[in-house]
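Predict the assembly for these two chains.
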Amino acid sequence: MTAETTSPQDLGAYQEKVKTNRLGLWLFLLSDAFVFGGLLISRFYLMGTTRPHLEQTLGLIVTSVLLLSSYFMNRADRAAARGDRKALNRNTLITIVLGLIFMVGVLGFEWRLAPFGPADNVQGAIFYMLTGMHAFHVLTGLVFLGFVYRNSRKGLYSREKHWQVEAAAIYWHFIDVVWIFYYPALYLIGTPAG
Amino acid sequence: MQEEQRFWKDPGNLVFLGLAVLTGLEFMIAALDLQWWSAFLGIGAVKAWLVIRYFMHFPRLFAEEKADHDR
């Protein structure tokens, strides 16, 4: 991946740092999960057995796109672990493209097609808050992936040192996990509100 | 044939297939208007576990670093 060789002492110190970074990242994700969890609870508290009246096919499409992006992000992560820079670049780029498609699907289509505005009623407030919060995280994830892609093209990652790639992958998959619960909560569970 | 065998041996592929199947199942349950709330919860939990365990590598949080190169 790069011509840089790492001494065992450097590698040991790097791995210790990665362990700490990893713990820090997971703690951050745990705190972020409380925010998403709170919004999810508010959905059920405010809407009960009803759900927003949304376009089902579009919901399935954007969900599939996000799951696919997670698949390619995993491939990118594994490519970094085995030192395959070409595969890392390719799969990261695919993930970014799919993430952008997801954003367009939600913000460009779903938000426009929704038969309510954010201030119209409870449906609107819930829908725009949940999807907006999630989309903001997708956006920051895309920015993160952009940096990873740029750094990878510069050859800054190696088989031994690629923590940024792993961190970006963990963050991206976290966004996917949030949508795993948000998709049924918004699109599937309950009867469409009148 | 070998490519096909490689496909099925790749955990990433299997996890993705599992996620796709479970998502399809969720959609079908909703489309049939079955209102099985516990099914949605269970499917969501399984999907989340698959992603957290195999894509986010949660066990790595507790593992020794020397195993990293064997991914």
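The longest strand of chain A covers residues 50-51. The two ends of chain A are 57 Å apart (CA to CA).
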